[in-house]
Design a protein that fits this description.
The chain is mainly alpha-helical. The chain has six helices and two strands; from the N terminus they run H-H-H-H-H-H-E-E. It folds into two domains: about 5-45; about 65-125, Winged helix-like DNA-binding domain superfamily/Winged helix DNA-binding domain (Arc Repressor Mutant, subunit A), CATH 1.10.10.10.
Length: about 130
């Protein structure tokens, strides 16, 4: 995996390039790879900043995002349903196969928590906002 450089070094390299130095000489001066200096200068020219782009999948764009309303309705109807049961019901109703852990993460992002009851069982409840 690549090394993460600070915004400061990125700005200093791109400033040197804007002041007239070549990208390769700027890379040598600040001891970074030539390809990094080239990419940072190009990004600064195109986007106005050499800062890194956001990584990862955008929120709400996962494979289960289309089924969130259905999952919430199922949980609100029967709050003590286990994740494997919820995964089975999702497969029966939509044909979508999902791992119980994926469903749990989606429900946690939607504001649900898992609370144990006095009898040792548990149920999902929605956090207050």
């Amino acid at each position: 995996m690549g090394k993460v450089y600070s915004d400061d070094i990125r700005l200093r390299v791109t400033k040197l390039v804007l002041d007239g130095a070549s990208r390769r000489s700027a890379a040598r001066r600040f001891a970074v790879s030539e390809s990094s200096a080239i990419r940072w200068a190009a990004r600064a020219a195109d986007e106005g900043s050499p800062a890194p782009r956001k990584q990862g999948r955008p929120l709400g764009k996962g494979p289960l995002a289309d089924h969130l309303d259905l999952l919430i309705a199922m949980v609100e109807k029967k709050p003590d349903m286990t994740m494997p049961e919820l995964a089975d019901k999702l497969e029966v109703e939509t044909g979508k196969v999902a791992h119980p852990a994926s469903i749990s993460r989606l429900l946690c992002r939607a504001g649900f928590t898992y609370k144990k009851t006095a009898d040792g069982l548990g149920m999902r409840t929605r956090r207050r906002s």
